């Protein structure tokens, strides 16, 4: 199957910036909702069980997200129509997700929140692989480092901005949820109108067989070892990162001993420190990576720096340690995220069937699965240690350092 033509000139710049804005808003939504709004809402409903309920929310949501991502990616590969293969998933997914997300703000019970947030997560995770695959569809391999750097800067900036906005709007629940929902829906609709994808109507339709469709999600580590190592690297780094990020609000309250109001402000201000560090690092890393035509050194360095960041609160269990964490995690995470996406597009199995969406969807599960396991792991560690948050930081350091080791065996990318 022939891929859509690679973009050049002004069209390339517009698509690049549009992807950055979309991923900025999507990551802002994830960080604001998962890191601040849902934890506050859950804590208000049942303060005594907040950690366990938060872990349960993340685990159930991530199960559905993990299934939705590769399936949606595979179905987008098969989509035929005048709007292309990816655009319908981006537009429809953003609308369904945003309606469901705004509904969460009206809920007054844990399980009603769960249902609507799961619906939102499925919709958003159905559009995300379509957006990611556009990097493989529309940009040449030689330019994907700078593209990944710009998009990565948007993603990492979004993670910070979302936390900042949600932290300051935590007391205005409906406004906060509504702002995130409206922003991503409007951005995605504008995206598909401005960046018209080539029609896929003339592409040959593929025969659908349930057995072949299901078997297609298995990518043999023996036949594609680089893909397997990239998957494992992503999985381990997010196991460590999510363990801390998911409980950051509770860490500020129960480990650093801040009040509820002070912790909401602190998490927002920490996000601004992270923001400055990660934007500079993301853009610089993407430019250097393309200039040097190297991906692995940047991903490895980012992983090691993130591990160092997580040592800071262990050495200094106070706000000074948290400020160091906020700055250093921005440097490491910015470097990792800016190049990780480019590396992922270059380890995909070669296929004549145009299965990039499915393969990138499988790689995205390396982010979603830790969202299932990591909060549960953290809750178990807290339970076994009597609420000692140092155990979470120790586990996170091991996982993040392990990610750097998983990148080393990759041979097809320098």
UniProtKB/TrEMBL annotation:
Residues 16-414 form the Major facilitator superfamily (MFS) profile domain. InterPro entries: MFS, MFS_dom, MFS_trans_sf, Tet-R_TetA/multi-R_MdtG-like. SUPFAM superfamilies: MFS general substrate transporter. It is found in: Membrane. GO terms for molecular function: transmembrane transporter activity. It is a multi-pass membrane protein. It comes from the Bacteria. It holds the Pfam family MFS_1. The chain crosses the membrane at residues 21-42, 54-75, 87-104, 147-169, 175-194, 227-252, 264-286, 298-316, 322-348, 360-383, 389-410. GO terms for cellular component: membrane. The keyword Transcription regulation does not apply. Keywords: Membrane, Transmembrane, Transmembrane helix. This is MFS transporter. It comes from Sphingomonas sanxanigenens DSM 19645 = NX02. The lineage of its organism: Bacteria, Pseudomonadati, Pseudomonadota, Alphaproteobacteria, Sphingomonadales.
